[in-house]
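Chapter review: from sequence to fold.
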Amino acid sequence: MNEGQKTLKDVVGIGNAMVDILAPADEAFLAEHGLPKGAMTLVEAAQAAKIYEAMVSGVEMSGGSVGNTMAGLASLGGTGSYIGKVHNDQLGGIFHHDMESMGITFGTAPALDSSPTARCLVIVTPDGQRSMATYLGACVELGPEDIDADTIQSHKVTYLEGYLWDAPMAKEAMIKAAELAHDAGRQVALTLSDPFCVDRYRDSFRDLILNHIDILFANEQEIISLYQAEDVYAALELGRGDCNLVAITRSADGSLIATGDMVHQISAVPVERVVDTTGAGDLYAAGFLFGITHGYGVAASGRIGAIAAGEIISHVGARSEADLQELVLRTL
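The C-alpha cell string follows.
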C-alpha cells in the first residue's frame, strides 16, 4: 500500500438525496393510489401531496437508496462522502445535517431553482414489503458540474445509484464520476435500484455496466430483467461477463456473489420477524462495500452485507437501530 492509498476514504456515494417518509397501510391503499406493490413509482408534486395527506403518521428520515447505504457504511465504521442535490429548504437542511452527523461528508451545492428537496413516500404493507412513491424535486438538477475529481479520486470506491438514470444530466454526472475513478485506479459500483428502472433503461444500463462498472448490485428480479434471462443463474453468468463482480440479493434465500471464476452462496441471517424490508438491499451493499474496502474477501464481505440487511428488516426504517460494527464483530 502506497502513501496515497493510506489516506483514501472508503466510498463516495452518488444518489438521489431525499427524505423518506414511511407509514403502514394495506394493499387497498396501494390500489387506490395506483402504486405497484414492491416497486418505486415516480410521481409529480400534486400526487405526492395527495398520497402524503392520505398516509397515517409515520417515520421521517433522510434517505434515498445510496443515502441509506452510506448511513450503513458509517454505522459499520466506514468512511465516506455523499454527492446529491437538495434544495435550500427545511428537508434539505435535515438531509445535510443527518449525513454530516453520521460522519459522511456532504458538500454538494444546493439546487437553485424552485424545486423542493425530494421525498420518497414509503408504504409498508403487513407482509413487510415496501412500495414507494417518489417525487424527485431537486434531485434532477444533479449534473457533471457537481462531480469533483478530488472527491472521487480520494475514495476507494465510487458507488452509483441506478435511479439517477432517470435524469439526463445525472447520467452525465455518473459517467464522469466513473471515468475519474478509473483514471485514478479506483473501483466503480452500481446498484440497479428497481426492476421498473431496469425495464426503462435496459440497453443503456448494459452499456454502462460493460464499460464503466466493476461491481454490480441487484436483486433477482432486476438481474433477470436486465439480461432477460430464464433464471437468476443464467443472468449471473451473463453479468459476470460484463463486470468483475456481481452480487445478487435473494431475500430469505440469501445472496449470490459471482466473480470471474466462481460463485459464492451466502446464507441470509435468520430474523425472528420481518417488519419492513425498506433498505435491505441498500444495507447489504453497505456491508459488502465495507468488507471489500477493509480487506475482507468476497464471501466474508457478503456475510457482512447479510448481517446488515438482517438487522434493517427487523424494524421500521432504513437506519440501523443496533450498533452494526459490534453486531458484525459478534456474528461474523
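Two observations follow directly from the output. The CA atoms of residues 89 and 116 lie 7 Å apart. The first helix runs from residue 3 to 6.
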